[in-house]
Amino acid sequence: MITDKKVNLLDFDLPALQDWFSEQDEKPFRATQVMKWIYQFGVDDFEAMSNLSKALREKLERLAEIRAPEIVSEQRASDGVVKWLLQVDGGNCVETVYIPEDDRGTLCVSSQVGCALDCSFCSTAQQGFNRNLSAAEIIGQLWRANQALQCLPREQRVISNVVMMGMGEPLLNFDNVVTAMNLMIEDNAYGLSKRRVTLSTSGIVPALDRLKAVSDVSLAVSLHAADDALRDQLVPINRKYPLKELLAACLRYIEGESKRKITFEYVMLAGINDSPAQARALVKLLKGIPAKVNLIPFNPFPGSDYKVSKPEVINRFRDILIKSGLITITRKTRGEDIDAACGQLAGKVVDRSKRKLKHLKEAPITRVI
Ligand code: SAH
User: Fold this and answer.
1) Is the CB of 108 within 6 Å of ligand 1?
2) What is the pLDDT of residues 128-156, one digit of tens each?
3) How many Å lie between the centroid of ligand 1 and the Cα of residue 257?
């Protein structure tokens, strides 16, 4: 088929870019040269790639493009957090958040337009699901954020960590997420350490096994409950992949690597999952699993019924975990004044008709409150 549509080079990880150059009768090492221009120098104009011949630059101009999502709006919170609304193809928008800390800068990246999983405490779920992001739209969030951060003082603009914790369930957009994560850790692209790239999942068990086969980025699992009855309500995908199967998959993911731990995320919802008995149940559940626990104070959003647990309740819960030997931290809420905190990312989802996955339609989803 002859098409005049240009290929977006942001869609290719290094092996794919090398293949593409070979298909164009060019040497594969051109791929590393171009990749460095794109990711290390932030260049999207072939003309600026001065170590390529003029003929090659013109050829690339004809066949290819380097196109990241455009910024629609930028908001800055009082604590330095920056949130961008990015336009992706089809009139949709996703959100990307930059979180500066003393010793690192973390970018929270979206993987889908909306989300199909319908977790009852998450704002993205209310948006419904539209589609998967392309690899270019995922890695393009880093490219665009790096570009936008250039106006800040040097120490405030370094992206040292990436968390796939924005909109969407990354393991339901497997191939594109893996391609984008390959570029995050590729030396010729962003060159981040594998330990500084974290994929967060609600627990798509078969995809966890697939992930282990192709990548070994850090893993965070959205647990939120220590028993199936409650988790079925909070994270409906639990009806398909219950706790026992999920935790077995987590163990398989880090099997054979003695120093690695899985991070378990636990949103603190007042009166729902924050009692001492539930803390003890969590300790029991995670026994034997190399684990870290992140307690996330619930971030409210318009239309949500849940309330965040009081600080003393969160501390009591945390202390029970710590006493049992579990490394536990309470995640600081950042970017609250611009709705950039966990679970508050909404973006703009134009067609919400694909709201839920088929298997979730079968069982009615009732709210806990
Ligand atoms: N779909 C993936 C990644 C997205 S969310 C996942 O489920 O892991 C990143 C984290 O924020 C998840 O642990 C999610 O459960 C949590 N979260 C969602 N809504 C929240 C809210 N309103 N307050 C606090 N945390 C929330």
Assistant:
1) no
2) 999 999 999 999 999 999 999 987 666 66
3) 27
Which ligand 1 atom minimizes the distance to the CA of 164? 3
Task: Supply the pLDDT for residue 3.
Answer: 60
| CA distance between the termini of the chain | 54
Does residue 299's CB lie within 6 angstroms of at least one atom of ligand 1? yes
Q: Which domains does the chain have, with CATH numbers?
A: 7-65 (1.10.150.530), 70-359 (3.20.20.70)
**φ, ψ of residue 115 in degrees (nearest 5):** -155, 145
What's the CA gap between 10 and 136, in Å, rounded? 4
For residue 339, the number of C-alpha atoms closer than 13 Å in the C-beta half-sphere is: 14
Longest Cα–Cα distance of the chain, Å, equals 69
Q: Which of 207, 285, 297 is nearest to 252 (CA)?
A: 207
Check if 95 is active-site.
yes
pLDDT per position as a tens digit, 250-286: 999 999 888 899 999 999 999 999 999 999 999 999 9
Residues with Cβ < 8 Å from 292, sequence gap 6 or more? 261, 262, 263, 264, 326, 327, 328, 329
Determine which helix (DSSP H) or strand (DSSP E) holds 23, and give its type and residue range.
Answer: helix 14-23
The confidence score (pLDDT) of residue 303 equals 87
Residue 57 to residue 240: CA distance in whole angstroms: 50
At 330, the amino acid letter reads T
Cα–Cα distance, 107 to 128 (Å, whole number): 23
